[in-house]
């Protein structure tokens, strides 16, 4: 039997995706805030180290979420964690 997606199902998918995007933006902005706090408390010639660390943290955490986190966070189907949708 072919599954026909209703407007309610489409709205539910859209709201879940909007929530994930909002949480992602908040996490990235918090990382930028931590970077500004750290660069304000150290000597000027160590600022590039803090910037590199922040860029590495954001990139590694984004790749980890892309490959593992999205699959665990969505499509649980009544369970605690999901078991599909890994690696994008």
Task: Based on the model shown, name its key terms.
mainly alpha; 2 helices; 88 residues
What layout of secondary structure does this protein have?
Blueprint: H1 7-40, H2 47-73
Helix pairs in contact: 1-2
Describe it.
The chain has helices at about 5-40, 45-75. By secondary structure, it is mainly α. It has a domain at about 45-75. The mean pLDDT is about 85.
Q: Find the count of extended strands (DSSP E, 2+ residues).
A: 0
Which residues form runs of ≥5 with pLDDT under 50? none
Helix % is 55-70%
Rg estimate, integer Å: 18 Å
Give the helix/strand class.
mainly alpha
Mean pLDDT: 83
- Categorize the overall geometry: elongated
- Determine the strand fraction and express it as a percent band: under 5%
TL;DR of this structure?
The chain has 88 residues and is mostly helical. It has helices at 7-40, 47-73.
């Amino acid at each position: 039997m072919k599954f026909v997606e209703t407007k309610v199902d489409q709205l539910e998918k859209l709201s879940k995706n909007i929530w994930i995007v909002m949480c992602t933006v908040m996490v990235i902005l918090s990382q930028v805030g931590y970077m500004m706090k750290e660069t304000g408390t150290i000597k000027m010639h160590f600022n590039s180290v803090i910037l590199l660390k922040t860029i590495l943290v954001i990139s590694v955490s984004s790749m980890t979420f892309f490959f593992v986190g999205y699959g665990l966070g969505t499509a649980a189907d009544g369970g605690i964690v999901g078991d599909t949708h890994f690696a994008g």
